[in-house]
Inverse folding.
């Protein structure tokens, strides 16, 4: 199946102001949609409407790159003040005016955060970092995995005296982040490094983290506001401070996002790149998320983009109810990594297997910053990368598998800012088209509560065993802990025993669930 040159060129959405083209020629038929309500809702959002009724808050990430659009002078000053603070802090750290207590400049930055407080900074660090030119080296703790903490902290051990610790949490109460912070603090204390003099908080005013930073006199505090959502916070201090410390041009990052916002306010859905994306998603999955989106950037620097999008898209669109309260189970599944690497992995299935997806290819025109090198006469490695992308996209189309292609001039602070902003707006527009709230995350909150319930039961199990000497089976421990969830009681005991915190005695049957436990 071939596409004529005329058909191909008629399906391009070209946006020179942000160095981006969206090619929807291989998506099949894209039905016309009623855009006015979606554009109106977006305009109201930018004007400061309460767009998140559950949480009674505004959604103001667009103001971060255009503070003059913020509805109040206080919000405008807060954004501009935070930006000034980020720049001044990074400049002073780089110059050594803010120095490590051990003497000398800080060399490393350890970011502790999760979800929206980690994915954007990780994406920007990977996409824009350069081994030789970065001003500081970034590291991340984005989980509550003790072994994961050990791997990063062991690697950093000798440089802990020169490591700045950014603890990022909008709510200031996220347990994974609290745990990471406590582990870093302990590692620093073990190395006689004064944690507070290395620690920086980025959080909401008055949060538990904010209060801790004040009471322990941390090196600095940066604001987060309730009107910026976690997954759209990359252009706030959450993303700008780590980027500025790394040496990334944050003005260009903000400019790219600001110019993309201008381009995505256009009310013509064929000329607006965010509307074009939202229309493709709607067409592919019939407005019900029936097809997964496979994100395939042919560029190593963008390999974290699909992880970043997983949160932005799936946490925003994966909702049980629509705005009218009807059960709809909406969503749009996202996965991916990078090409051509994935051609040696799952692209086989995309080409020949189950047809439950559409692909978003990302092509980057500029191959590298250094001069070209020919791996064969007249051919560079970048020519191969281009050839693999074009070949795969054509092969998929010929096999009846839809794809769209986003072409970027290069990977730079400007284009990354634009890419993020275009997808933020696409998510908001798509949510309006399918009638859901993109700006809350009840499932995330439920997950946080569920972990609390498990740990509360663990405390009762341990208390019961501490008060009743000897070995006990799961039935009696569950009764003693006041729970009828024997499976969970077993799993708690098994985990504690595997870590030497309970004794375990297996029975002759060898069936693990019949084991007996003691303190
Ligand atoms: O997008 C969101 O709101 C969440 O995924 C948060 O980013 C995540 O739970 C981390 O929350 P916090 O920044 O409050 O620690």
């Amino acid at each position: 199946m071939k596409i004529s040159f005329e058909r191909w060129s008629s399906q391009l959405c070209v946006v020179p102001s942000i160095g981006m083209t969206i090619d929807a020629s291989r998506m099949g038929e894209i039905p016309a949609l009623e855009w006015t309500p979606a554009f109106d809702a977006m305009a109201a959002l930018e004007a400061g409407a309460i767009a998140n009724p559950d949480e009674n808050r505004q959604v103001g990430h667009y103001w971060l790159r255009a503070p003059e659009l913020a509805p109040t002078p206080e919000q405008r000053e807060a954004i501009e003040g935070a930006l000034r603070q980020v720049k001044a802090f990074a400049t002073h750290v780089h110059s050594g005016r803010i120095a490590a207590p051990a003497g000398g400049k800080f060399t490393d930055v350890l970011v502790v955060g999760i979800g929206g407080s980690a994915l954007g900074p990780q994406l920007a660090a990977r996409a824009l970092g350069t081994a030789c030119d970065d001003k500081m080296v970034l590291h991340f703790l984005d989980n509550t995995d003790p072994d994961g903490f050990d791997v990063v902290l062991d690697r950093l051990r000798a440089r802990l005296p020169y490591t700045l610790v950014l603890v990022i949490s909008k709510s200031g109460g996220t347990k994974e982040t609290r745990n990471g912070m406590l582990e870093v603090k302990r590692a620093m204390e073990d190395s006689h490094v004064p944690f507070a003099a290395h620690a920086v908080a980025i959080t909401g005013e008055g949060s538990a983290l904010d209060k801790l930073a004040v009471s322990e006199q941390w090196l600095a505090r940066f604001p987060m506001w309730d009107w910026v959502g976690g997954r759209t916070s990359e252009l706030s201090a959450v993303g700008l401070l780590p980027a500025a410390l790394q040496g990334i041009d944050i003005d260009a990052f903000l400019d790219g996002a600001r110019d993309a916002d201008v381009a995505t306010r256009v009310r013509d859905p064929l000329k607006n790149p965010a509307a074009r994306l939202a229309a493709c998603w709607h067409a592919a999955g019939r407005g019900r998320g029936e097809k997964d989106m496979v994100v395939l950037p042919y560029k190593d620097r963008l390999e974290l983009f699909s992880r970043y999008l997983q949160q932005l898209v799936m946490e925003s669109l994966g909702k049980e109810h629509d705005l009218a309260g009807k059960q709809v189970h909406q969503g749009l599944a996202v996965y991916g990594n990078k090409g051509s690497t994935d051609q040696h992995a799952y692209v086989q299935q995309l080409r020949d297997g189950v047809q439950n997806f559409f692909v978003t290819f990302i092509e980057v025109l500029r191959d590298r910053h250094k001069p070209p090198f020919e791996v064969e006469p007249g051919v560079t490695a970048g020519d191969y990368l281009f050839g693999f992308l074009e070949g795969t996209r054509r092969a998929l189309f010929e096999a009846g598998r839809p794809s769209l292609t986003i072409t970027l001039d290069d990977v730079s602070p400007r284009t990354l800012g634009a890419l993020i902003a275009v997808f933020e707006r696409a998510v908001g527009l798509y949510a309006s088209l399918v009638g859901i709230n993109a700006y809350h995350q009840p499932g995330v909150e439920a997950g946080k509560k569920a972990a609390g319930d498990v740990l509360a039961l663990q405390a009762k199990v341990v208390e019961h065993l501490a008060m009743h000497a000897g070995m006990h089976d799961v039935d009696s421990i569950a009764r003693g802990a006041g729970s009828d969830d024997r499976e969970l009681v077993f799993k708690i005991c098994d985990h504690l025993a595997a870590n030497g915190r309970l004794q375990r005695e297996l029975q002759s049957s060898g069936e693990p669930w019949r084991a007996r436990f003691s303190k």
User: Anything to note?
Assistant: The mean pLDDT is 96. The chain has 17 helices and 18 strands.
